[in-house]
Write a structure and sequence with these properties.
Blueprint lengths: L1 E9 L4 H15 L5 E8 L6 E8 L2 H8 L2 H13 L1 E10 L7
Antiparallel strand pairs: 1-3, 1-4, 2-3
Helix pairs in contact: 1-3
Length: 99
């Protein structure tokens, strides 16, 4: 399993545009093969910052996602919204085990 997680901070005036783009992106991405979880959430302590969390069946599925048409639309929207910083990482994990 591949896990993608991190944060992205936006200019205050671009937050609403980014939120709308993220909702559309989540809707489309969740339809993709190999996507287990795809979430954006706004941080309570910093409303200009979003947490990204994704789980993918394989690296191949994640690569296919990066080439999806809706990903291009999303990137363009983020460019317009104004990304201030981005700290997102990819990790390989094993099986999920309930705690």
């Amino acid at each position: 399993m591949i896990v993608v997680t991190g944060t992205m901070e936006l200019k205050p005036e671009g937050v609403e545009q980014a939120r709308a783009a993220a909702i559309e992106m989540m809707t489309e991405t969740r339809k993709e093969a190999g996507c287990y979880v795809y979430e954006f959430s706004q941080l309570i302590e910093n409303p200009n910052c979003f947490r990204i969390y994704e789980e993918w069946e394989s690296l191949e599925h994640l690569i296919a996602h990066s080439k999806a048409p809706h990903m291009g639309v999303f990137r363009a929207s983020l460019g317009e919204a104004g990304v201030v910083s981005r700290d997102i990482v990819r990790m390989e994990g094993g099986e999920k085990t309930a705690l």
